[in-house]
UniProtKB/TrEMBL annotation:
<keyword id="KW-0342">GTP-binding</keyword>
<comment type="similarity">
    <text>Belongs to the TRAFAC class TrmE-Era-EngA-EngB-Septin-like GTPase superfamily. TrmE GTPase family.</text>
</comment>
<feature type="binding site">
    <location>
        <begin position="272"/>
        <end position="275"/>
    </location>
    <ligand>
        <name>GTP</name>
    </ligand>
</feature>
<dbReference type="Pfam" id="PF12631">
    <property type="entry name" value="MnmE_helical"/>
</dbReference>
<dbReference type="InterPro" id="IPR027417">
    <property type="entry name" value="P-loop_NTPase"/>
</dbReference>
<dbReference type="Pfam" id="PF10396">
    <property type="entry name" value="TrmE_N"/>
</dbReference>
<keyword id="KW-0963">Cytoplasm</keyword>
<dbReference type="InterPro" id="IPR027368">
    <property type="entry name" value="MnmE_dom2"/>
</dbReference>
<keyword id="KW-0630">Potassium</keyword>
<dbReference type="InterPro" id="IPR025867">
    <property type="entry name" value="MnmE_helical"/>
</dbReference>
<feature type="binding site">
    <location>
        <begin position="247"/>
        <end position="253"/>
    </location>
    <ligand>
        <name>GTP</name>
    </ligand>
</feature>
<feature type="binding site">
    <location>
        <position position="228"/>
    </location>
    <ligand>
        <name>K(+)</name>
    </ligand>
</feature>
<comment type="function">
    <text>Exhibits a very high intrinsic GTPase hydrolysis rate. Involved in the addition of a carboxymethylaminomethyl (cmnm) group at the wobble position (U34) of certain tRNAs, forming tRNA-cmnm(5)s(2)U34.</text>
</comment>
<keyword id="KW-0819">tRNA processing</keyword>
<feature type="binding site">
    <location>
        <position position="83"/>
    </location>
    <ligand>
        <name>(6S)-5-formyl-5,6,7,8-tetrahydrofolate</name>
    </ligand>
</feature>
<dbReference type="InterPro" id="IPR031168">
    <property type="entry name" value="G_TrmE"/>
</dbReference>
<keyword id="KW-0460">Magnesium</keyword>
């Protein structure tokens, strides 16, 4: 893999495509002072912003702006890094990038800067992932959580648990040499109590990571109801102040049937099934089919009915066609028209919320109900913005710690389970991560990251 051979010099536009006041090109490699000299005609001063002209091979000015030079190892990647801050137009950025290539750089692959930062020990894998998560965060809460992981809060926690595992392993392995004293020794060392402490910490972090996964990916809500029952009104009301800032995700197109709002910082993807009627129009039909596919991934289905009428046959028909295992909440809207009070009721496990989408009465009850279904009970600061990869590793580590507890009479097996738990945790920070997995993780980053 290229990162393991002698590092070559890579370059990419680091700012988003399109036009902006400023555009930044990032370059990483070895001996970049000479490249800076060729680019600007000046010797760069480390870590000092200098106003320069960026020059082509003939000495003509391509652009003017700021040049930053970070000599290794005190840089994002741990290599020499140059940052060229020019004017943020696509053409001028491409001209500057081409000039860097002329001077020996090659175009960076997606995630290659982060990958180098990881391989050079500037940050661990969980932190590198947090960079990507911060950039992709769609709510304020998700962004805050990503920043905490980025600054190492999650990694530090993994290291503390790992250290406790190592201590315990050393203790047990030392005891293996003195079989006759095993039991007494472990009792004195309170080995099982220490194991239980590790287990409790894993359970706790796993739960906070599960909450974080929710914050990262959000929940899918399908909104079902006849025309005019108040679906659009409810969406507006639920969204409230904090509308999620959601840009288009690569590879998907925006469609009118899907909207993302934020509830307590959790992205809630709401699919309005208004378009789910039978249609013969082929274009409309594609939209309908896509909606049905999204419905299969629903976490909760909101069945909206008019509080004055209760449910009626056409609602039941759509409901019957929806996936069976998914939680359903019946929303009785327009209570203001029949003098009912806002309330939540539960009959034989079927939850109903009575509200007025127009006046907002009872909408907080629905919000709380959605959070309950999602399993959200965290409070901001504790949440770990985890990925599925992290959850799997945490669950596996917990499994080994629990297995160790069950093996406490056979010390060799006990020690082996601890070793495996330690390895699983090491996958999170990247201490025990195979090269091909690294490739997969970093290739999902954008270019310039
Ligand atoms: P949709 O077709 O299901 O999206 O329904 P809309 O949200 O567009 O609402 C249809 C009509 O019902 C609009 O005129 C709304 O103002 C009205 N409406 C929605 N919710 C309420 C409510 O809680 N009370 C009253 N009185 N009217 C409502
Ligand atoms: Zn509507």
């Amino acid at each position: 893999s290229p990162a393991r051979s002698l590092p070559d010099t890579i370059a990419a536009v680091a700012t988003a495509p399109g036009r902006g006041g400023i555009g930044v090109i990032r370059v990483s490699g070895v001996a970049l002072a000479s490249m800076a000299q060729a680019l600007t005609g000046k010797t760069p001063e480390p870590r000092t912003a200098g106003f320069v002209r960026f020059l082509d091979a003939e000495g003509r000015t391509l652009d003017e702006g700021l040049l930053l030079y970070f000599p290794a190892p005190h840089s994002f990647t741990g290599e020499d890094v140059l940052e060229l801050q020019g004017h943020g137009g696509p053409v001028v950025m491409q001209m500057l990038l081409a000039r860097c290539v002329e001077l020996g750089a090659r175009l960076a692959e997606p995630g290659e800067f982060s990958r180098r930062a990881f391989l050079n020990g500037k940050m661990d894998l969980a932190q590198a992932e947090a960079v990507a998560d911060l950039i992709e965060a769609s709510t304020v809460a998700a962004a805050r959580s990503a920043v905490r992981s980025l600054s190492g809060a999650f990694s530090d926690e993994m290291h503390r648990i790992t250290d406790a595992l190592i201590d315990l392993r050393m203790l047990v392995e030392a005891t293996l040499d003195f079989p006759e004293e095993e039991v007494e020794f472990l009792e004195k060392a309170r080995a099982l109590e220490r194991l239980e402490d590790i287990r409790a910490r894993l359970v706790d972090v796993l739960e906070r990571a599960r909450q974080g996964a929710l914050l990262r990916t959000g929940m899918n809500v399908v909104l079902v109801g006849r025309p005019n029952v108040g679906k659009s009104s409810l969406l507006n009301c639920l969204a409230g102040e904090e509308r999620a800032i959601v840009t288009e995700i690569a590879g998907t197109t925006r469609d009118a049937l899907r909207e993302t709002i934020a509830i307590e910082g959790i992205p809630v993807h709401v699919i309005d099934t208004a378009g789910l009627r039978e249609t013969t129009d082929p274009v409309e039909r594609i939209g309908v089919e896509r909606t049905w596919r999204e419905i299969q991934r629903a976490d909760v289905i909101l069945r909206m009915v008019d509080a004055r009428a209760g449910s009626s046959a056409p609602d039941e028909a759509i409901d019957a066609a929806l996936p069976a295992g998914v939680e359903r909440i019946t929303v009785h809207n327009k209570i203001d028209l029949c003098g009912m009070a806002a309330q939540r009721s539960e009959v034989e496990g079927r939850v109903s919320v009575y509200l007025s989408a127009q006046r907002g009465d009872g909408v907080d009850l629905l919000r709380a109900e959605l959070l309950r279904v999602a399993g959200w009970h965290a409070h901001g600061e504790d949440v770990v913005l985890a990925r599925e990869r992290h959850l799997q590793a945490l669950r596996a580590a917990l499994g080994h710690v629990e297995a160790a507890g069950a093996q406490s009479a056979a010390l060799e097996l006990f020690a082996e389970e601890l070793r495996q738990a330690q390895e699983r945790l090491g996958e999170i920070t990247g201490e025990f991560t195979a090269d091909d997995l690294l490739g997969v993780i970093f290739s999902r980053f954008c270019i310039g990251k």
